[in-house]
Amino acid sequence: MGGKVLADITPSPDAPHSVPALLRRNAAKFGGDSAYREKEFGIWQSWTWAETEAEIEALALGLLDLGLNRGDFVAVIGRNRPALYWSMVAVEMAGGVPVPLYQDAVAEEMAYVLQHCGARFVVAGDQEQVDKVIDAQEKGPGIEQTIYLDPRGLRKYDHTKLTSYTDVQQAGRDARDRLKGELAAREAELTYDSTCVMLYTSGTTGKPKGVVLSNRNIIEASKSSSEFDSLRRDDEVLAYLPMAWVGDFIFSIGQAYWTGFCVNCPESADTMMTDLREIGPTYFFAPPRVFENLLTSVMIRMEDAGSFKKKLFDRAMTRAKEIGPKILDGKPVSGAEKLAYAWDNMMVIGPLKNTLGMSRVRVGYTAGEAIGPEIFDFYRALGINLKQLYGQTEASVFITQQPDSEVRPDTVGVPSPGVELKIGENGEVFYRSPGTFVEYFKNPESTADTKDAEGWVATGDAGFIEEDTGHLRILDRAKDVGKTASGGLFAPKYVENKLKFYPDILEAVVFGNEREFCTAFINIDLTAVGNWAERNNIAYASYQELAGHPQVLASIQSHVEAVNRSVAEDPMLAHCQVARFLVLHKELDADDGEMTRTRKVRRRIVEEKFADLIDALYSGKSEQYTETEVTYEDGRKGKISATLEIRDAATVDVEAAQMAAE
Q: Quick check: pTM over 0.85?
């Protein structure tokens, strides 16, 4: 597979060479179609492509009026709102580089990114984000102007370095005659190799890295993935995931601008489910945790339902799990099965899909973590075309996708169009594609470590390609794959994902590399377990109290032992059974440094922070007292203490089981 042919793709001279060029094309060809919607004060507001073009152009002119230079970095932070998406396109149109940040990032995290990229300007959604920018400025100068969208709470602030979004737009409109030539010149300079956006990694193992993505990366990835799933102009998406995440940028800007579909922004995180039902998206993406939470809420409601409704639901779902996937995959279905599914759809499945806001979903994806087969099968049974993809920021998302009729819960699909895959000698997955990132900003060493001269990128994940199907299966992070003391394969993520399949387990961290046996930390899901406690009249005052309840511990133990039996069936991973576990006294939290903002566990930090608990798991203790520093919502630090019960879990003697089978 030699050469760098994939990276040399060049569009025809008359094809759009940048995201702003795609905007101009959409406004010219279908300017009257809806491009963005936003719910505010309970009312949906809509902008056409022509109106969107006018809004973005006014902002771009306003940025020029403020003094934005070619190559300047502009940070964008806030919840999903059309104006913030427009600001990213306007920055590129004016010759700058947009840098979206996670809206829940604390001031210290924000300060690092702002200083690292040298941002001169910030577009902030509201007072909360402005406050963090002001705090970040104290840690280092550089921000010349913060442009705020929502003025509430900002009237008495010092406005020497604060400007409202509408004022910047108005200044741009007023200066149009003076600056339109400069804006046109900067737009004309944009090429396929110009920087489109810079996105920072979540920083699982260290400081976040700035991933530079070009127009080539974004447009080619958006084009091929849109064609893969036949995305259309009349599709609808709900933009609710962090704007700093590469997936949201691809779905809400890349694919949206390539295909011309409409991006809908919810009023708030609290109203997301209501807004989801009102929009009824046809194209929907969510990480496994969202699908798990939705399923948990359904199951909680079913537990509270009457016996008749519960029986009707259980019977319908049992049939649907057999028939639904067949219909989705185009497999033969008997007349009796069609009739039964139609009845179940009318009585149970249809109303349930409507409640979930997924009545119209034509293409659904999940990625980021492995999703439980039971959860995956549940949504497929409803007739929702849920599939898995595997991607990275460095790939402009897409590495593999699951084609229709080849959907399975145990793989992440085949190479996306234009992507090449290979497996290294150590089992690490490598890829190259038109979406492959340009570089890590100011970090040539890491760039060289990740991407070689031929364009092959090291994913950091271990996996293998099935010979008969060409599907990729991911085992774990390559750096986390090891050996137990007995020489068996240790792949913690495989076991952790199986544990998280249970609705009452929110998070799991498995240990065992070079150890005699495996152990685990468990976080309970407070919503699911709390509902169980209420139904059973069990009083509790805190997460910590509920996590240590004997019945909760017994339930978690049954899950761990069920997972052990499942893991034992795979000879390659049978040594990863969990022999001892404890339920942590606190949820792993990004504010405490234990997780990234995309909710990935920082394994090394957890190992260091809870070293006393790991020692207790391996020393044979039945309980362990511990104190842990925590960060409260207002930023204050404090300590919580607890004496945690440590439990043994039954494991399967693999050798004995194999001998018995023989």
A: no
